[in-house]
């Protein structure tokens, strides 16, 4: 008699992908029930996906990406082969405010408006960085 294969366990990558699905879902104001209905599963199954308890098949992951209006590689960006999440651009998507900003920005069809908004955000970031540099210089001078 042959032994039955063991079920595949969820990995760190499954948990990271699930967390990104949850963050995108929340940023778009979708409930777990709405997401589940749209992809043909129960809200309990969505919970299992988001917590990384259950793996998500390729077809279902593509359906989720389509529904959330993101490329499927959004869920995989910056995952190392070990399945651990590393710091990088995709880690930014763990912050719901970043997701809201990106989703709002990408919904603007006018390229001139998008360029203007990007200039404003870059200017605000540069201002913050120059303030932080000045504070670091002051602290170093006091030492």
Automatic annotation (TrEMBL):
All copies of the HTH cro/C1-type domain together span 21-75
Q: Does the keyword DNA-binding apply?
A: yes
Q: Which UniProt keywords apply?
A: DNA-binding
SUPFAM superfamilies assigned = lambda repressor-like DNA-binding domains
- Has keyword DNA-binding? yes
Quote the InterPro entries the UniProt record gives.
Cro/C1-type_HTH (IPR001387), Lambda_DNA-bd_dom_sf (IPR010982)
Q: What molecular function terms (GO) are annotated for this protein? A: DNA binding
Q: Which Pfam families match?
A: HTH_3
What is the protein named?
A: XRE family transcriptional regulator
Tell me what organism the protein belongs to: Methylobacterium oryzae CBMB20
């Amino acid at each position: 008699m042959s032994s039955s294969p063991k079920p595949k366990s969820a990995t760190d990558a499954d948990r990271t992908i699930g967390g990104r699905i949850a963050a995108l879902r929340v940023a778009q104001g979708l409930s777990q029930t709405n997401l589940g209905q749209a992809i043909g599963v129960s809200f309990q199954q969505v919970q299992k996906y988001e917590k990384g308890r259950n793996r998500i098949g390729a077809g279902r992951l593509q359906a989720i990406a389509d529904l959330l209006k993101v490329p499927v590689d959004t869920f995989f960006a910056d995952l190392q082969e070990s399945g651990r999440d590393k710091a990088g651009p995709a880690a930014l998507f763990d912050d719901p405010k970043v997701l809201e900003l990106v989703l709002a920005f990408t919904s603007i069809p006018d390229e001139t408006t998008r360029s203007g908004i990007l200039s404003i955000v870059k200017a605000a970031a540069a201002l913050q960085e120059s303030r932080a540099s000045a504070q670091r210089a002051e602290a170093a001078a006091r030492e």
